[in-house]
């Protein structure tokens, strides 16, 4: 006889709907946190390719550090990926007619600011020029601060450039910002006479005020114990473990070393701010502003009409070769 297996009635348990992930929203402006893609258009020489990688580190943590580019990729390919990932800005490097250009564009409809790179130095070059270079990976866990100098009263094109640079990094609220997260700064200085913009990237360090250089080095090496909670020297000897075994209590603990300069400099409640350049550095010039994303009407141009058309043809040729 055939045997039949009893099929037990399986209870179907309805799973609660998965909670929707909240988008990354800037707490200051209420908008989405700006994110960026840094990539190249056309063939770049080795130094400019390294400059592209350095700019990606500047835009951390809200950028694709390991963005893969292929020769057959065009601008539409990056736009199709940028939408779902919430990318708001493009930084594009190109080298038409051996004149490096940097484009800073707002996605998906522009505008696009085109800069000529008159000179640049890589992060490695900046580090080699320093006696004690310092660039730990912890610096790039938070976005840098942005400081603009000399952009006021220069015209509508400078106002648009100011808005573009301010919106490329998350905004901060000076009343609620965590000072420990402010470890980098990007400085843009505009020279009205030469019409050049100096781009600098620094790390921020704090130093205690009112102490000699030897004491400051001793403090910064974290060799100063925290004695605020102790009433007598004997307490320090006991907690540090210098007493005999019969005198040491079971609940004793070692004294923690000072981990930040603010606690060591508690008496004056002041600290000196020291900026150390970590690169890259650039000297750029705003030459053109387009309404759309690398297209559309020209809002501003630094050259004549014929020169602008020649530069546009050279850019189109470089993009076609890509």
From TrEMBL:
UniProt cross-references to Pfam families, sorted A to Z: Brix (PF04427)
Domain spans labelled Brix: 34-295
Record field: compositional bias (Low complexity): 14-25
Region entry Disordered, spans: 1-27
Domain of life: Eukaryota
Example of a GO cellular component annotation carried by this entry: preribosome, large subunit precursor
Listed SMART domains: Brix
GO molecular function: rRNA binding
Listed Basic residues bias regions: 1-13
Gene Ontology biological-process entries: ribosomal large subunit assembly; rRNA processing
Name of this protein: Peter Pan-like protein
Species whose genome carries this gene: Phoenix dactylifera (Date palm)
Phylogenetic classification of the source organism: Eukaryota, Viridiplantae, Streptophyta, Embryophyta, Tracheophyta
